[in-house]
Amino acid sequence: LSNILISVEKNITLDRGTRIELSCRLDDKYSHLKSLQVTWKRGNETKNTSEKSKLVKLFFLRLRISDNSKLGSYSCTLKGEEEISAIFHLQVPKIEGKEKPIVSYEGDTAVMICKSFGYTPIAWTWYMTNGSEQVRFPSVGQYVIHRISANVTHMKILKLTKEDNGVYWCEAAFELGKSKGKLKLKVLSFMVPLKPFLAIVAEVVILVTIIFLYEMYSKKKEKTEKEFDQIEQL
């Protein structure tokens, strides 16, 4: 074998149990390859159920995905004069949260939204991480949780306090497993936006005080000089 290695990857999203066929097909530019050895694996486990089409250089693996134990990464490796591989990542749908932190102020209301594009979760759960502890939120009191549509959920937090600072997770449950989105909430005191203003005010006060003291000193010096001049004239 030569040292040439060609590899491709593909993500396959599944939200429920199904039958699926993974296939590796050689492009025409690789038609010269002969005596190919085909190996299918899930992780490091070799699968011996590979089949080959009689018409083209097409190799496939048929699977029945019944639970999340069947998810993961499957690979097809063809070995000959060159080594060609394809990796299929079988996964539950990803949840979209928000990359940038949500910034709000004490006493205000914050709204956090999560979406599942193209797939409908069985249920949504909201929780917050506090160190290694997970705090789950029921839809009562300060926390109001709504499922806007089948694929969208939001949590509204009323009357924010400093304790609401932190990392939040929205977790979607699918038939084949769970997926979650991450959101960050930053709660600021009303004093935070006032700090630059107060700093400017302090600088102005100091400057005015310096000018006032300088003027008083100048007037006192001028008065003293006049008194000296009068004494000298006498």
UniProtKB/TrEMBL annotation:
<keyword id="KW-0393">Immunoglobulin domain</keyword>
<dbReference type="GO" id="GO:0098632">
    <property type="term" value="F:cell-cell adhesion mediator activity"/>
</dbReference>
<dbReference type="Pfam" id="PF07679">
    <property type="entry name" value="I-set"/>
</dbReference>
<protein>
    <submittedName>
        <fullName>Embigin</fullName>
    </submittedName>
</protein>
<keyword id="KW-0472">Membrane</keyword>
<dbReference type="GO" id="GO:0070593">
    <property type="term" value="P:dendrite self-avoidance"/>
</dbReference>
<dbReference type="GO" id="GO:0007411">
    <property type="term" value="P:axon guidance"/>
</dbReference>
<dbReference type="InterPro" id="IPR007110">
    <property type="entry name" value="Ig-like_dom"/>
</dbReference>
<keyword id="KW-1133">Transmembrane helix</keyword>
<dbReference type="InterPro" id="IPR013783">
    <property type="entry name" value="Ig-like_fold"/>
</dbReference>
<dbReference type="InterPro" id="IPR003599">
    <property type="entry name" value="Ig_sub"/>
</dbReference>
<feature type="transmembrane region" description="Helical">
    <location>
        <begin position="197"/>
        <end position="217"/>
    </location>
</feature>
<dbReference type="InterPro" id="IPR036179">
    <property type="entry name" value="Ig-like_dom_sf"/>
</dbReference>
<keyword id="KW-0812">Transmembrane</keyword>
<feature type="domain" description="Ig-like">
    <location>
        <begin position="93"/>
        <end position="189"/>
    </location>
</feature>
<dbReference type="GO" id="GO:0005886">
    <property type="term" value="C:plasma membrane"/>
</dbReference>
<dbReference type="InterPro" id="IPR013098">
    <property type="entry name" value="Ig_I-set"/>
</dbReference>
<dbReference type="GO" id="GO:0030424">
    <property type="term" value="C:axon"/>
</dbReference>
<dbReference type="GO" id="GO:0007156">
    <property type="term" value="P:homophilic cell adhesion via plasma membrane adhesion molecules"/>
</dbReference>
<feature type="domain" description="Ig-like">
    <location>
        <begin position="2"/>
        <end position="88"/>
    </location>
</feature>
